[in-house]
Amino acid sequence: MGNVMLALARTFGSLRSSKVWLYVLTPAIVSLLLAIGLAVGALGWAVQQMMEFPPMTLLVGWGLVWLAHILAYLGGWMAIFALAYLVASLLAAIVIMPLMLRHLSQTEYRDVAAMGRDSFVAAALNSIGASLVFVVAWVATIPLWLIPGFSLLIPLLLMGWLNRRTFAYDALSMHATDSEWASLREAHKAPLFMLGLTMALLAHIPLVGLLAPALAALSFVHYGLEALRRSRGEAIVTIEGERV
C-alpha cells in the first residue's frame, strides 16, 4: 500500500507543472463534450431502448412503470458515463500517456534506462483490447445492478480493472524488458489493481472525475517507473556509450 500512496503523492505533486496540466485537461475536456453531446442527442433513445428489455418490461408488467423509467434513465446515464470515460481512457492511453512518459523520463526518472520496446501499435492494441473486454463485461453485468449496492460496486471493479489493464502495460513498455515486465506484473498484481481502483473511485467525484483517466495514466507512470527503478537496484546500465 505504501507504493500506491507514493505514486498518488507524486501524481498530485506533478500537477505543479503546467505541461502536466495540459496533458490532464485534454482528455477531460473531450470526455465532457462527449458526455454533453450524448446526453442531449442520445439519452432519450437509450431510455426507450432499455424500456424494451428486461427487467424494465417486467416492472412495467407489474405496474411499476415509474420504477422502470427511473432505472432506464439511470442505466442511460451510466452508459453515457461509461462511454465518455472509455473514450477518455483510450485518449489518455494512446495519445497522452507517451507524452507524460517522455516528460517524466526526462525529469524525475532520468536514471531509469529505457530498455523496452517503444511500440505505439502494441500499446494501442493493448488499450483497444482492454476497452472491448470492458464494454462486454459492462453490458453483461447490467442485470446484476438491480441487486442493492451492485450498481456502485460493479462499475468500480470494472473501471479499476480497465485502469490496471490499460495503463500498467503502457507505463512500462518503453522502459522494461519483457522479463522485467512479467516479473513486475506478477510481483505488483495487487497494488496495481488497488491503484486502478483508487483512480476509479476518483472518477465518481463530480468534476474531479473528469480528470480521472489522465490522472490514472500519470499515477501508473509514477508507480511503474519507481517499481522498475527499485527492481534494478543500484545497477548501472549503459546505453549508446552513456552510463545512466
Defining key terms:
single chain; mainly alpha; 10 helices; 2 strands
Radius of gyration of CA atoms, rounded to a whole number? 20 Å
How would a textbook summarize the main sheet?
2 strands, antiparallel
Termini separation comes to: 29 Å
Q: Strand percentage, roughly?
A: under 5%
Topology as a string of helices (H) and strands (E): HHHHHHHHHHEE
Average pLDDT taken over every residue: 84
Q: Which runs of at least 5 residues are low in confidence (pLDDT < 50)?
A: 234-244
Question: Largest beta sheet: what is the strand line-up?
Answer: 1-2
Number of strands: 2
Quick one: overall form? elongated
How would you classify the helix and strand content by structural class?
mainly alpha
Number of helices: 10
Which bin fits the share of residues in helices?
Answer: over 70%
Can you describe this structure?
This protein is mainly alpha-helical and 244 residues long. The protein is 74% helix and 2% strand. It contains ten helices and two strands. It has a two-stranded antiparallel ribbon with strand order 1-2. A hairpin with a 2-residue loop joins strand 1 (238-239) and strand 2 (242-243). Residues 234-244 have low confidence and may be disordered.
Summarize the topology:
Layout: H1 2-13, H2 18-41, H3 43-50, H4 56-61, H5 65-105, H6 120-140, H7 150-172, H8 178-187, H9 189-202, H10 212-232, E1 238-239, E2 242-243
